[in-house]
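Kindly review this protein for my students:
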Amino acid sequence: MSTFRDRTAVRTKHEGDIVNITSWAADRIKASGIKQGIACVMVKHSTAAIALIEDEPGLKGDLVRALENMVSKDAPYAHNTAGGDGNGHSHIRSTMLGQSLTFTFDEGRPDLGTWQQLVLLELDNTGRERTVLIQLVGE
C-alpha cells in the first residue's frame, strides 16, 4: 500500500466562484505513480467547499442561486453579531456542502463519470487564496 500527499493554492475571484480542479487532481494522481486507490481532496478553510458537479455555466449559476435560497445571506446570524465578518452564511453553506470529498481512481486516473468534475466553491463574501490538499492511498 502506498500513499501520496500534495497541495496547491487556488485563488478565487469572488463569492460564488466555482473553480474546476479536476486537471490538478488528475495530474497529482498520475504523478504519484499509484495506479488504483482512493483520493481525498480537502480545502483547508471553513468558508469554502469541495464538490463534484457538471462544470456548465447554467448549472453553476443554479447552484449559487440554490445556496442563496437555502441559506440566505440576509438571515440573522449570531456569528455576524458576535464580531464575525458578515460571513455566517458562508460557514453554514460550507458545513452543508463539506470541505472534503473522497473518490476512487483506477489506471492512474480519477474514476469520475462523464459529466463529473471536481470543483472548489468559494462561499465567503470575497475571493481568497485557498489551500487544497490531495491525499492518495492505493497500489
Summary: Strands lie at 2-11, 18-20, 37-43, 48-53, 100-106, 109-110, 117-122, 129-138. The radius of gyration is 16 Å. The chain has a mean pLDDT of 97. Helices lie at 22-32, 57-70, 78-81, 88-97.
